[in-house]
Structure formats: structure tokens, C-alpha cells
Specification:
heterotrimer; A alpha+beta (609); B mainly alpha (310); C mainly alpha (334); A: 609 residues; alpha+beta; six-stranded mixed sheet; four-stranded mixed sheet; 17% strand; C: 334 residues; 75% helix; globular
Chain lengths: 609, 310, 334
């Protein structure tokens, strides 16, 4: 398995949107794109420590195991997995006459946003675009924020998997139509996928998400226009053959590149067809002016209950988020650091508007390139770990909006180990480790340059605090360097950076996405170049281990070794955060996956501005 | 005069060409590969290679620039790296309009405050009022926008709740008030000084005294002669300063959330969006060159001595 | 102004320096005039205080500028931290003082290279020699002048830094010199380069115009006909006459460069941490897009206002001074 996106589970969508607005390096809750420049940034570059508040019961071990089992069933099921719809969504009819719907219907929801890089699902790779695309388009499957049932059918009604696990048969919902009223058939999916794969489309991620399909690589390479692995059985039945039993294939179908698009729409619209896209999402794109505003309107042809809102206005021009919120110009806002004290004061009117957002799964860390001096010495790495008082930073600098991390797997995620022994702040041990390291003498240390993604200027405050702790407690001085996000990733991927700050969001609900992908010797995105035969062996046996509980245990053993060898300095886990939501807004919820749906939002018009 | 003007006209395209080349060449010094930036974060190398090929990024940069200029002459300023498939011109158009509107309103504020104040101050030369007003205006002029913008928002949008915090809906809407004051008020100092000096010049001139001698009323002298004659040289400055307006609103656009050209430019700098940057340079340079030309001509019309010097 | 002041004490006895007597007495005259203007005097005093603080930052600062104190973050001003502390508990007063030093170094570098060195040399060369030199410098200047300022500064600052930094590392690695990067030298060079195109042309045009005006003056003609060499003429006769407008333009330029640093650093392309600068301080508390400016002004005004007031005073005072110098040294102008 190749790289894993931080955005499959699109990091911090709201945060991304609000960051520009709200603030700064630290938005509100949830992780944040690297720096808050005007330039929209990819998702989880650096994290942002959000709100701490002792983790809810999510992190209790039995739960984790239960989740692991459930997920193993849901995702890795080789047996027939027929979709079970959640209760709320059983409403399949297009509700038009529902009195409740009518009562809630209407209104314009306003929030800050940033420019999508593209609105073409096939080209979407960043979280900002992802978020808009998810509202306008849809695919066979979608992610939910229910950890026990993370992937459910969307446009598909159900699907079956063959005994060998290589043939997937999808049954589409009845009477599916695009936003323009034309029917959605299995053929549309075949066309959409082959179009995504066509070299002219220019998708950079199609290989990763659809590459498992038999014959698709010929299309990607331009040798064919059709993939024999995709078969239209009838109008509502699609059969897909993949090149091996890959249980995670179904998860990939939640990614935009696999979404269904409308052939007429694209052929008529030419290169700028996304100015007037036809999709199957709950909203349609009504208007988009680059850098000014993006307006979504209700898709009355949505297969499920359409959104209550008439329109959603994303203000793309930025500005002072909090001031705009207080002046009734937007419905939601992140809370900039400077405003935190004021807003969380119960005597302040704004206090009524403060809403908790769930912790998002991600882990941010400082990665050491273990093949580069001075980080080729585990003692030195451990010394740096022990010398950082994350609890203090969280409390004093981040208003307790961050949860110190001690290992790769975040609390609440399958495989999280509450008994993990992290390298907690301990000056004695730090000094001991430093003394044992071959870099104990400052003159023997090469220059240390910590690289973060960004466009220059001050690195995030917590990194400055850490640098100061290293300097003060160990006499280790470092320099900072900021590199543009895309370039930064290239540098990381090519092991050109000595030490860097990054964050990781899971791609699928399995510890594999944290431990195996990031630390196995031969993993392509093992950016620290960490290599340990024992860990590799544990990871190998975990991959084939049929017993979910045992599997989790193997991952946890590997994790403990990795932590002990300090390939990382884990920084923060996603934690609960706070945002401001106007009293008139109902149904606005963020999921731990970082995404938010606006379909359930409705406004109480009497008190709305 | 004609020769001078036509020489300037011929020189302008060369000027633009070299200015564009200058910006374009900085791109080749810069780190970061536009193709990588465009491809996004999980692109495979072949996809990046395809983008490089499509954009001709592997060609020598002089060739890239020549191709750019050739296209630009046909009205095609290329495709933005950041907004894929977007024609740069289509991207710039609305932003330019907003920025021009913003700067125009600000300019009006500048003139409406600056010119009368300058006149007012000149008429009170020698009293405490003149230096006091000049000092106050200089204090405002020196005040960094990092303070004025948030301060005005705090007072007028949040505390008094008179005006929206941010956004833009045309130069005649309430949205324009705060940004226009933020940009325009400091600029008023410059015009106040010009106007004051110009008025003092006129005041010192013979014919004013003559007019007095003929028995015209004091106020009439003020309006008819002094103000009009004092404004005359100012007109020549208007051209120069109008050209300087372009891009003078960078931080104001950011803080007030105005979708103007500065924001786009800033984004383009960080995203290595060279087609946008080069187009912006060419446009900005073109406007400046044009404004300078007009100012030159106006100047020589009003003040014939200039012709000799050129 | 200090220069003018110190020249009072400089005794000119040697015949070689006699030639300089004219400007010296002129400056003395200027100083006397300046003393009569209360506002200008005030400006001189404020600048003297600010510059003293900056130059002696290591002595004046009460704390290390990068030393964090997590036990006392975002504190209001008190007797220990005169201007309060920032988010990391760093002393704002000390950071402002060091920020002033950064500004001083930057302004001096920029003004020296651009206005004084390039402006003077090219301006005199172009004005006196005319011909090809004149055409080339003027045309180059026009090209640069026509590019919108803010684009030019942003693009240069954003593009050349990595190269300069590489060079800094190279020096550290290959020579005994160390601390190149941490001294902030890279920032000064980058910003100096970014401001260069903006500042040299104005000064150069000024000098050129002045030179043009006097190159055919009778005494210059006389010198020429007596066979005095060009360099001598330039230094003895032209230089003293072009120096006054340069002083005025430098005075105005100081404030402008200070503001330029603030804007560039605000966007993260100017001075880089850990070195403090006024612009970095403003950028840090306004989230670099200015979006947090309102909130900071509201909840922790001292964090935003401390650097801003310093910048404000600098721009104000240099303008007052420039104005006064202009009136005194160029009585005929306007």
C-alpha cells in the first residue's frame, strides 16, 4: 500500500476553513494547516493543539478492542457485507411534503472558507477542495464518524464481495439522479472512473485509489480507454474486479477521485466544467468567484432528504473572523488564541455560543531522520524527548487546548494503548541520555535545522517553546526553517530533512495506518527512515493475524519499541476544541473525522440575523 | 513635444518587456517546483512530469518567457498554476476592479481631506494652527496600518456597530468606508503639504496683491485666484500619485477581507504562481508607465519650461 | 543630526580638508537652525533615545530576547517586565529593544548601499559623464521603478533567501567564521536586496539632477579647463553640492525602510526568528494575515502597540527631521 493521505479522512476541514479567518497557528480545535497565510494549505501539515479536557471515555481499552473487532468486520470483511443503513438515513424518499422539513427549510448559512484548488473530484487532493467536493459530489461509499461502522454505502445501496475477495458487486440506489435530473447509472460510474484514469484528466492520485482495478493501469498509461475490471451488469449494478484480495479497497471508494461525474456536463463544459458542475451531493454549486465567495444551494434532487438550508455562503476573502462573528456576518467562527480567555468567561455573552467539537484523530510530531547526525543516536533522540515538558506547554502556551502525545496512535483510535509508556518530561533522564550519547559534547554536534512547512516567519509557538527547553535544559540549540508545503513534503519524502515537524491523520480505521505505514523499514513514507527488525517482524505478523485483539496487541508491542527508540518526539494528539456557533444555528456538528456536514443544519429564522 | 511623446511611447513596450523578464527570471532563482506545487500532496512522479511537460517547464527560461510574451500579445496571459485551468486574465479582472475601486475611494478621501486642509493651513501660516494641523496630519500619516485597521474595526464596527467588519460590495457601499479611511487619511498628509506649499506660492505672487489693489473682497480673492492657481500644479501630481495607488492597499485588503489584487498577489508569491505574478507585473508596470506618460504630458502642457529640460 | 553635531567639534586646519569647510559650516548652520525648531528638536531627541536603546540593546534589555518563561505568559506590564510578556513569556520590552537594533542595522545597510553608495556614485557619474552611463542607469532605473513596489519586495524577499542562506551555511562550514545565520546577516542581506531596487533610483535621480545643474557652473568649468581630473572635480566640487539633498532624502528614507521591514517581516519573508524585529512581533500577534489584529488589540493591546508605537515614532520623527532639514538646507525648494 502506498502513501496514505492525511486527507482521506480530511483533516480539520472546519479548522482549515476557520483558520484563515480565525487565527493563526492555532485555530480552534482540531488540527490546523501549517501557517495561516492567505494561501490555502493542505490539511494536516502541522497540527494544532486544540482543547485538552481529559479525553472522554473513548480511550478506555475495552472500547478500543470492541472497535477493533467491529471494524475488522466492517472493513476487512471478506464475507458478504451488506450495508446496514443508519437509522436516521433510512429516509430514502425525497422529502418534499414533510411538515418538519418545511418548518426547518430555508435560510442562508454563512461562514468563512478558503479557495478550493479544484472542484474536480478527480483532481482533488487537498482538504479544502475535498470539503467542497464532498458537498457537491458523491460516490459509492462514504465515511461516517461512527467508529463501529466507519464506512457505509452512499450512492450504492449495498455491495457484495466474492469469496476470494477480488470481485465487488455494487447495487445502486433506485431512482438515483444527478442534480440536473438526469439518471445516475452504473455506466456513469464506469465512465467517471475511466475518465479519472485518463492521462488527459491529469489526476495525480487515481493510481493510488483506483489502481487496484484490473485493467485501469492501461488507461492511466494511455494505452486503453476502457478497463475490463469495471463491468456494467445493468443500469443499477456495477461489478468491479481488483487484482488481489485487498479488504481496504472498499475504503478507497470514499475518496473523491472515485466519485461519479456527469459525462454530458464534462463534455459540454470543457476545461472549466467545474464552474457549473453536475453532481449527486446534497448541494449544488450556485456561484463561485475566486477569492470572493463560493455559494452552495440545496440540491432538490438529492437521493436522501435534501438540506434544510437554501444556501451556504462561504466568504473566501478572509478578514477578522471573530469580529465578523460578533458583528453577525458569519454563523460560525473559530476562536483565535487572543480571544480565548474572553470567550470562555461565563459572564461574557459570547460564552453562550461556545460549542465543543470532538477530538479529531491525528498525531503531530517532530520526526527525526535517524540516518542523519545527530539523530542517528537513540540516546540523543531520547534526551530530546525527555527534555520537553509538553504538559507545561499545553497549559501555559496553548490554554490547555492541546493534548500531549506520547505515542503515534491517538486516544479513541483502534489500537490506542493507554498503558503505553511514553517518554515523559524527566530532566534527570534527559541529562543521563545526553551524557550517554555520542553527541554529549556540543562541539561534536552538527548544526541542527528543524524544518516546518510554511511561508516563513515564526514557527508555531510550541516549537519555539520546545527549542527553548532544549537549549535551556540540554544546551542543544537549533535553527528553524520554513518551507512551502508541497516542497516540504517532497523534501520529507526524499529524506532530505534532518528534523521536521509534521502531523499524521489516519487513512482508515486501523492501527496499520499509524504504525506500519510510518515505521516499517520498507514503507515508502517512513520519513524518519526508522528501521528495526523486531518491529518489522511484529508488523508482519500483525498483517496476517486473524484475531483482531491479538493483532492490536502486536501493533501495540511494535509501538512501544518505536516510542522507546524515539524515532519521533510525539507532540499532540487531536483533542476536543471549541468553536463559536450562533444561537440560531441547529444541527451544526463536526465529526472526529474532521469533516462537517451542512445537510442537517437549520436556522431558527426568528432569531437569525 | 511630439517627438518626446512618441519616444516615450516607443520606449514603454521595451520597459514592460524588461520589467516582466526581471520578475520572470526571479522565478528561476526561487526554490520550489511549480509542477510539484500544482500536483498536490500525493502526486506520483509521472504525474508531475506530465505537468512539467504541459507547461513547458523544462525549457530554458528565456524560451519560456518569450513564449509567455508571445501569448500575452495575443491577449493570453497564461494559465494560473494555483487555480488550474483558469486564465490569468479572467482571474485578475475582478480583483483589479475591486482594488481600483478601493483605491479610488481612498483617493477621494485623500483629496477631500488633504486639499482643503492644505489650503486652510496655508491661509493660517504664521499662526499656531498651521503647524499644529500639519503635525496632527503627519502623526496620522506615520501611524502604521497594523494599528489603524483593527482600531477602526473595533470602534466603528464592533463598539458603535455602524459599519460591517469586512467584505466588499462596491465602492458606494458601507463596506468601503473603513478601508477607504484607513488608506485615504494617511495619504491626505501628502496632499495637504503639496496644497499648502502651492497655496503659499500663489499667496506670495504679485497678482494677488494686484487683485487686492483693485478692491476685490478678501473672500473672492481666496476662491477665485488663490485656490484655483494653487490647484493647478497639483493636477500634475495627481497623475503620478494615481499610478502609485496600485498595490498600496496590501495589508488593508487582508485585514478587511477585501478580495482585491494584493491578496491574490501575495498568494501568487507564496505559491510560485509565475503566470499570475508576471501578468500582475506587466499590468502594474503598464499602468505606471501610462500614468507617468500622462503626467509628463500634462506637466509640460502646464509648465512649458519642462520641454526644454527633456 | 548627530553627524551635524559632531562636526561642530571637528577642527579643520589641514589644507586638504579646507575644501570641506563649506559643507561643514553649512551643516553647522543647519544645526543652529535645527535647534530653533522645537518640533524638529523633539524628533531628534526621540530618535536619539530610540537609537541609543537599539544600539545598546545588549545592555538595555532586561531579559534575553528568546528566553521563554512559561510561568508568566501574556502578563501585563509590571516592574519586572516593563511592557509585559508575550505568549511564550518572553519580555516584550527586551524584544522591542532588540527589534529596534534590527531596524537600525537594516536601515543603515540599506541606506548606505542604496542611497549613499549606489545613488551617489551612479548619480554623479550619470550626471557628470552623461552619455552611455547616463542612459544605462536611467533606463535600468525606469524599469525597476515601473514594477509595483510591493510585488518587487515580496518576490525578491521570497525568492533569494534560500540562496543567501545556503551561502551563509557555506561560509560557516568552510571558514572559521561562525554565527553567520544566527546573527541575522541573511535577513539583512535579503531585505537589503529587496529594498535596493526601490531606494537607489530615487537617490540616484536626485543626485543626477543636482549634478547636471552644476556641472556647467563657471567654477567647475574653470577647474576643468585648468586640467583638474574628473575624480577630483567630482569629489571637490560636485560632491559638496549634492550632499545636502542627499541628507534630506536619507532622512525621509530611514522611516520608509523601517516600515518596509515591518511589512516584510509581517508576512514572514523579512527577519526570521529567533532574531526579534518589530515586524516579527507585529506579525506574531496578528496571525500574519492580520486576522487576529482586532482580538489582540482588544485583549492584549500592549503586545500589538509596543512595536507599533516604536515604528510610529520612527516614521514620524524621521519625517519631521527630513522636513526641517529640507527647509534649512534647501531654502529655495518649494
Amino acid at each position: 500500500m502506498k502513501f496514505v493521505p492525511k486527507l482521506l479522512i480530511a483533516g480539520a476541514v472546519l479548522a482549515t476553513m476557520l483558520v484563515f479567518a480565525c487565527a493563526s497557528e492555532e485555530p480552534t480545535a482540531t488540527p490546523v494547516p501549517p501557517t495561516a497565510t492567505t494561501v490555502p494549505q493542505p490539511p494536516t501539515a502541522t497540527p494544532v493543539p486544540p482543547e485538552p479536557t481529559p479525553a472522554p471515555n473513548l480511550s478506555v481499552a475495552p472500547t478500543a478492542t470492541a472497535i477493533a473487532e467491529a471494524t475488522a468486520e466492517a472493513v476487512a470483511a471478506e464475507e458478504t457485507a451488506t450495508a446496514v443503513m443508519e437509522e436516521a438515513e433510512v429516509v430514502t424518499e425525497r422529502v418534499v411534503d414533510d411538515p418538519e422539513f418545511d418548518a426547518r427549510r430555508g435560510g442562508v448559512f454563512r461562514m468563512l472558507g478558503s479557495d478550493p484548488t479544484t472542484l474536480d473530484p478527480a483532481l482533488t487532493t487537498d482538504s479544502t477542495s475535498y470539503d467542497y467536493v464532498l458537498k457537491i459530489f458523491g460516490g459509492l461509499m462514504r465515511l461516517t464518524d461512527d467508529p463501529s461502522n466507519p464506512i457505509v454505502p452512499d450512492l450504492a445501496e449495498s455491495f457484495t464481495v466474492s469469496q476470494e475477495g477480488t470481485v465487488y458487486r455494487f447495487k445502486l440506489r433506485d431512482d438515483l439522479v444527478f442534480s440536473d435530473g438526469s439518471p445516475v447509472t452504473a455506466f456513469d460510474f464506469k465512465w467517471s472512473w475511466e475518465r479519472a484514469a485518463a492521462p488527459d484528466t491529469g489526476s495525480t492520485v487515481v493510481k493510488e485509489f483506483l489502481g487496484d482495478i484490473v485493467g485501469i493501469n492501461d488507461v492511466i498509461e494511455g494505452n486503453a480507454t476502457s478497463a475490463e475490471g469495471i463491468t456494467v451488469i445493468d443500469e443499477t449494478t456495477l461489478e468491479v474486479q481488483i487484482d488481489g484480495p485487498k479488504p481496504y479497497f472498499i475504503a478507497k471508494l470514499t475518496y473523491p477521485v472515485t466519485f461519479v461525474v456527469n459525462q454530458d456536463n464534462i463534455e459540454a463544459g470543457g476545461e472549466t466544467w467545474t464552474d457549473d458542475p453536475v453532481g449527486t451531493g446534497p448541494f449544488i454549486l450556485k456561484d463561485y468567484e475566486i477569492g470572493v465567495s463560493l455559494v452552495l444551494a440545496r440540491n432538490d434532487n438529492f437521493w436522501d432528504r435534501p438540506p434544510f438550508l437554501d444556501e451556504v455562503h462561504f466568504n473566501l476573502a478572509g478578514g477578522s473572523s471573530m469580529a465578523m462573528y460578533e458583528n453577525d456576518e458569519i454563523h460560525v467562527s473559530g476562536i483565535p488564541f487572543a480571544a480565548y480567555e474572553r470567550v470562555t468567561d461565563p459572564n461574557e455573552p459570547l460564552y453562550q455560543d461556545v460549542v465543543d467539537v470532538p477530538a479529531e484523530f491525528f498525531t503531530s510530531y517532530i520526526g527525526f531522520n535517524v540516518k542523519m547526525a545527530p539523530f542517528d543516536d537513540a540516546h540523543f533522540r531520547r534526551a530530546l524527548n525527555y527534555a520537553v515538558d509538553k504538559e507545561l506547554i499545553a497549559e501555559a502556551v496553548l490554554n490547555n487546548r492541546a493534548r500531549p502525545a506520547y505515542g503515534p496512535i491517538p486516544p479513541g483510535f483502534i489500537g490506542f494503548n493507554p498503558d503505553l509508556e511514553g517518554l515523559r518530561f524527566d530532566l534527570e533522564k534527559a541529562e543521563e541520555e545526553l551524557a550517554m550519547s555520542e553527541y554529549a559534547d556540543p562541539d561534536s554536534r552538527p548544526r541542527i535545522v528543524l524544518t516546518t512547512s510554511g511561508t516563513g516567519g515564526s514557527p508555531p509557538v510550541w516549537l519555539q517553546a520546545i527549542a527553548d527547553m532544549w537549549d535551556r535544559y540540554l544546551g542543544v540549540t537549533i535553527e528553524f526553517q520554513e518551507v512551502e508545503w508541497a516542497t516540504f513534503l517532497q523534501e520529507v519524502d526524499n529524506y532530505r530533512l534532518q528534523v521536521f515537524s509534521l502531523a499524521w491523520s489516519p487513512d482508515y480505521p486501523d492501527p496499520h495506518t499509524f504504525v506500519d505505514v510510518l515505521f516499517r523499514s520498507d514503507s515508502q513514507i517512513n520519513s524518519t527512515q526508522y528501521s528495526n527488525a523486531e518491529v518489522d517482524a511484529l508488523l508482519d505478523s500483525a498483517t496476517t493475524e486473524p484475531d483482531p485483539a491479538r493483532r492490536v496487541q502486536l501493533y501495540q508491542e511494535a509501538e512501544q519499541i518505536i516510542v522507546n527508540e524515539a524515532a519521533w518526539l510525539p507532540l499532540w494528539w487531536g483533542s476536543e476544541g471549541k468553536i463559536l456557533v450562533k444561537q440560531s444555528v441547529n444541527g451544526f456538528a463536526l465529526s472526529p473525522l474532521g469533516s462537517f456536514t451542512l445537510r442537517d443544519v437549520w436556522l431558527e429564522k426568528e432569531i437569525d440575523f | 513635444m511630439l517627438i518626446y511623446t512618441s519616444r516615450r511611447l516607443l520606449w514603454t513596450p521595451v520597459l514592460l518587456f524588461v520589467a516582466g523578464l526581471f520578475i520572470f527570471s526571479l522565478g528561476s532563482v526561487a526554490p520550489g517546483d511549480p509542477a510539484e506545487l500544482m500536483a498536490g500532496q500525493r502526486a506520483d512522479p509521472e504525474a508531475i512530469e506530465r505537468i512539467r511537460e504541459r507547461l513547458g517547464l523544462d525549457d530554458p527560461f528565456l524560451m519560456q518567457y518569450m513564449r509567455y510574451i508571445a501569448d500575452a500579445l495575443k491577449g493570453d496571459f497564461g494559465e494560473s498554476y494555483r487555480y488550474r485551468g483558469r486564465d490569468v486574465f479572467e482571474l485578475l479582472g475582478p480583483k483589479l476592479r475591486v482594488s481600483l475601486e478601493l483605491n479610488l475611494v481612498s483617493y477621494v478621501v485623500t483629496l477631500v481631506i488633504g486639499l482643503p486642509l492644505g489650503f486652510w493651513a496655508a491661509m493660517r501660516q504664521g499662526t499656531w494652527k498651521d503647524p499644529t494641523m500639519t503635525t496632527i496630519m503627519l502623526l496620522i500619516y506615520a501611524l502604521p496600518v497594523f494599528f489603524t485597521a483593527p482600531f477602526l474595526i473595533l470602534v466603528f464596527a464592533l463598539w458603535l456597530d455602524w459599519i460591517p467588519v469586512s467584505g466588499w460590495s462596491g465602492m458606494f457601499s458601507t463596506h468601503a468606508v473603513l478601508p477607504a479611511v484607513t488608506i485615504g487619511l494617511p495619504g491626505a498628509f501628502v496632499f495637504m503639504r503639496f496644497m499648502r506649499a502651492s497655496t503659499l506660492d500663489v499667496l506670495g505672487q504679485e497678482y494677488v496683491r494686484t487683485a487686492h489693489g483693485k478692491g476685490m473682497g478678501h473672500m473672492t480673492v481666496n476662491r477665485r485666484h488663490i485656490a484655483r492657481n494653487a490647484l493647478l500644479p497639483i493636477i500634475t501630481i495627481l497623475g503620478f500619485s494615481l499610478a502609485g495607488l496600485f498595490g498600496g492597499s496590501l495589508i488593508v485588503e487582508l485585514i478587511y477581507g477585501i478580495p482585491g489584487v494584493s491578496r491574490l498577489a501575495l498568494e501568487a508569491v507564496f505559491q510560485r504562481d509565475y503566470p499570475v505574478l508576471t501578468a500582475l507585473t506587466l499590468l502594474g508596470a503598464g499602468m505606471l508607465a501610462l500614468a507617468n506618460l500622462v503626467a509628463d504630458i500634462m506637466y509640460s502642457v502646464i509648465d512649458p519650461r519642462i520641454r526644454l529640460r527633456s | 543630526m548627530n553627524r551635524a553635531g559632531s562636526s561642530e567639534t571637528a577642527r579643520i586646519d589641514s589644507p586638504v580638508l579646507a575644501e570641506m569647510e563649506a559643507p561643514d559650516s553649512f551643516l553647522r548652520h543647519a544645526w543652529n537652525q535645527l535647534r530653533k525648531r522645537k518640533l524638529a528638536l523633539f524628533a531628534v531627541c526621540v530618535l536619539a533615545v530610540l537609537y541609543t536603546l537599539g544600539i545598546f540593546a545588549p545592555l538595555v534589555a532586561t531579559h534575553d530576547y528568546s528566553e521563554t518563561n512559561l510561568a508568566k505568559t501574556e502578563a501585563a506590564p509590571d516592574t519586572e517586565n516593563w511592557l509585559g510578556t508575550d505568549r511564550l513569556g518572553r519580555d516584550i520590552f527586551s524584544r522591542v529593544v532588540w527589534g529596534i537594533q534590527t531596524t537600525i542595522i537594516l536601515t543603515v545597510i540599506t541606506i548606505l548601499t542604496a542611497s549613499v553608495f549606489l545613488g551617489l556614485a551612479l548619480g554623479m557619474a550619470a550626471g557628470y559623464l552623461r552619455g552611455a552611463v547616463d542612459i544605462i542607469t536611467m533606463r535600468t532605473g525606469e524599469v525597476v521603478a515601473v514594477v509595483p513596489d510591493f510585488l518587487l519586495v515580496l518576490i525578491i524577499a521570497a525568492t533569494v533567501r534560500p540562496r543567501i542562506k545556503e551561502f551563509g551555511y557555506w561560509i560557516e562550514d568552510n571558514t572559521p567564521i561562525s554565527g553567520v545565520i544566527s546573527s541575522g546577516a541573511v535577513d539583512y542581506i535579503v531585505l537589503g536586496l529587496a529594498f535596493l531596487p526601490l531606494s537607489w533610483f530615487g537617490a540616484m535621480r536626485l543626485i543626477r539632477g543636482q549634478t547636471l545643474a552644476i556641472r556647467d557652473a563657471p567654477y567647475v568649468d574653470a577647474a576643468r579647463s585648468m586640467g583638474v581630473g574628473t575624480p577630483t572635480i567630482l569629489i571637490r566640487h560636485i560632491l559638496p553640492n549634492v550632499i545636502t539633498p542627499l541628507v534630506v532624502s536619507v532622512s525621509f528614507g530611514m522611516g520608509a525602510v523601517a516600515l518596509g521591514e515591518v511589512i516584510a517581516s509581517f508576512f514572514g519573508i523579512g527577519v526570521q526568528p529567533p532574531r526579534p524585529s518589530l515586524g516579527v512581533m507585529i506579525g506574531d500577534v496578528t496571525a500574519r494575515t492580520g486576522s487576529a489584529a482586532v482580538e489582540t488589540l482588544r485583549s492584549h493591546p500592549e503586545q500589538l502597540l509596543s512595536p507599533i508605537i516604536v515604528v510610529w515614532l520612527m516614521i514620524f520623527c524621521w519625517n519631521i527631521l527630513g522636513d526641517a532639514l529640507n527647509d534649512i538646507l534647501n531654502p529655495r525648494a518649494r
